Amino acid sequence: MRYSPDAHITAGNVSALKVAWTYRTGANDTRTELKRKAAFEATPVLVDGKLFLSTPYDHVIALDPGSGTKLWEYDPGVNLDRNYSEVTSRGVSAWHDGSKKAGEQCRLRIFIGTIDARLIALDGETGKVCVDFGASGIVDLNKDAATQIEWTGGYQVTSPPAIAGGLVIVGSSIADNWRVDTGRGIVRAFDAHTGKLKWTWNPIPWAEKTTPRTGAGNAWSLMSVDTKHDLVLIPTGSAAPDYFGGIRKGDGKWANSVVALRASTGKFIWGFQVVHHDLWDYDVAAQPTLIDWKDGTPAVVINTKMGHVFVLNRLTGKPLLPVEERKVPQSDIEGEESSPTQPFSTISLVPEKFTAANAWGPKPEDVKWCQDKLGGLRNEGVFTPPSLKGTVQTPSNVGGVNWGGAAYDPQHHLMIANTNRLVAWMKLIPRAYYDAEKQKDQDNRIHGEFGDQAPSPYGMYRSFLFSPSGAPCNRPPWGTTEAVDLFTGKIAWDVPLGTLVPGKQTGSINLGGPIVTAGGLVFTSGTIDPHLHAFDSQTGKELWSYDLPAAANATPMTYTWKGKQYLVICAGGHGKLDSKQGDYVLAFALP
Fold it and tell me: Which SS3 state, helix, strand or coil, does residue 29 take?
């Protein structure tokens, strides 16, 4: 739930928060070209009196929670001369081995999945590998994943594994715009003591029969575990490639879904697909949120990049809030068979349409540029399919709600999430013209990128819709923190989060999530600007903010240690977002 019962820090005293300690990982001094992609997205975990975290290069570090003093560090020896699609780690997981006595080596095991696709078990006390796990402490996840030898850096692990009983469960991050036959999006469970494979689940078994074989459909984000009901809730992404589905005909289950498996066996229990036959890179990026519904029914809340919020019975997958299949615009691309309908929920967090009448810019010429640009693009609201002339995508492939996910306040049944509200555009490029198009000057004002999608008939190009001044074409806010009363479906509050224009509350594109506390506070960051914020959980009023030494594209955490509540955030920025980079871990506390 991302909810803490700690209440030493409250709305009444949060303004007095001060830095208690600072630790620097040294990752920012690493000499590697990968720094341009590196993102410090980790959320530390407190286990057995130690604070554990990971760096973008998969170093695992244990800190003293009261002073920030380093207790140990493990370097997995990732080859930093190789190219990787993503250069990040969102954290580590912990498991207690009940067969071992207190003081025995590896009684507490810390697990990390690496960007070169290894699963490693470490002794929580010393940081040394647990040699009885896998092959001398390591399981090679590339095995049986059908990864392409041309670019092994396209198959990775970027999120912490899930722990269920004596199993460690891991998915993968896959570069799914590179080609059709990428790595398999399988989810695997390993014995947490021995590293022996216990079960494998393939989200898209039909992909084995396509020509070429379709890859991805993978679980790259964070899973959730319901230990009481022996369930693991798995969010999945798009099947490859993202923007052309002519090779992968049909609805694409169970890509773009949340699926419940029996955690102990991997048996499929139920699945809910949020996008049929995805053509927009609308992965389920957010971790499923586990809550109790009005009548006590175990429920799961699914946040999406479209901003649609689905609430389901956790045991059956049946909707607890209405879901409607609505007709959507159809593709005009030869060989494409887009889905005639898509599921819509009763809760939508972000705008789903952007027209010339809504164009915005700091200068009149910016507004005109945006309006002229829109005039040549397909633009029929959310789920407008990709096209040769270009398609407006609202919301963009970033979201909506991304991997930062949601926090839930069970006292007031409030769900709080960070939202993105930038407009993007994308176009398909026929294979015969793709190489030449890549050489042209594109509308690439911020993070435009090509995707080969080989060997499909079309490559693709996508970018955000920014005017010549560098400002978004849609009116701010461009990012918010938003609270919804799930029991009523009504928005409780919605406030700009961060800024893209210093001195103005424009909101910012964000990657990273919120937490909520019993002290009546929401803590969050995630923005391009380097600030950490505290909002009143009932009203959304900002009560405190801190100017960090680097952007914090991460989710904070809180704990009480020796009677004092600490708030901790990893502030290291994000290379792909061009936010200020660093290698800071900061802890805050009351004087």
Answer: helix
Per-residue pLDDT of the chain (591 residues; tens, 9 = 90+): 999 999 999 999 999 999 999 999 999 999 999 999 999 999 999 999 999 999 999 999 999 999 999 999 999 999 999 999 999 999 999 999 999 998 899 999 999 999 999 999 999 999 999 999 999 999 999 999 988 888 889 999 999 999 999 999 999 999 999 999 999 999 999 999 999 999 999 999 999 999 999 999 999 999 999 999 999 999 999 999 999 999 999 999 999 999 999 999 999 999 999 999 999 999 999 999 999 999 999 999 999 999 999 999 999 999 999 999 999 999 999 999 999 999 999 999 999 999 999 999 999 999 999 999 999 999 999 999 999 999 999 999 999 999 999 999 999 999 999 999 999 999 999 999 999 999 877 654 456 899 999 999 999 999 999 999 999 999 999 999 999 999 999 999 999 999 999 999 999 999 999 999 999 999 999 999 999 999 999 999 999 999 999 999 999 999 999 999 999 999 999 999 999 999 999 999 999
Q: Which residues partner with 574 through β-bridges?
A: 39
Regarding pTM above 0.85, the answer is yes
Which of 533, 555, 528 minimizes the C-alpha distance to 17? 533
Residues 6+ apart with CB under 8 A from 84: 34, 37, 115, 116, 153, 154, 156
Residue 307, Ramachandran bin (φ over 0: left; ψ between -120 and 50: alpha; else beta): left
**Alpha-carbon dihedral of residues 409, 412, 415, 418, nearest 10 degrees?**
-80
Residue 223 CA to its chain's centroid (Å): 11
Tell me whether residue 48 is one of the annotated catalytic residues: no
DSSP-derived 3-state class of residue 534 = strand
Q: Which two tokens stand for residue 147?
A: 């990864």
Q: 90 Cβ partners below 8 Å, 6+ apart?
A: 41, 42, 43, 54, 158, 159, 160, 222, 403, 554
Cα(323)–Cα(365) distance, integer angstroms: 42
d(CA 238, CA 242): 6
CA angle 417, 409, 550 (to 5 degrees): 45
Beta carbons of 88 and 158 less than 8 angstroms apart: yes
Assign 378 to helix, strand or coil. Answer: strand
The residues facing 118 across adjacent strands are: 140
Least Cα distance to 195 among 225, 223, 168, 170 occurs for 168
From the list 281, 283, 366, 409, the catalytic residue is: 281
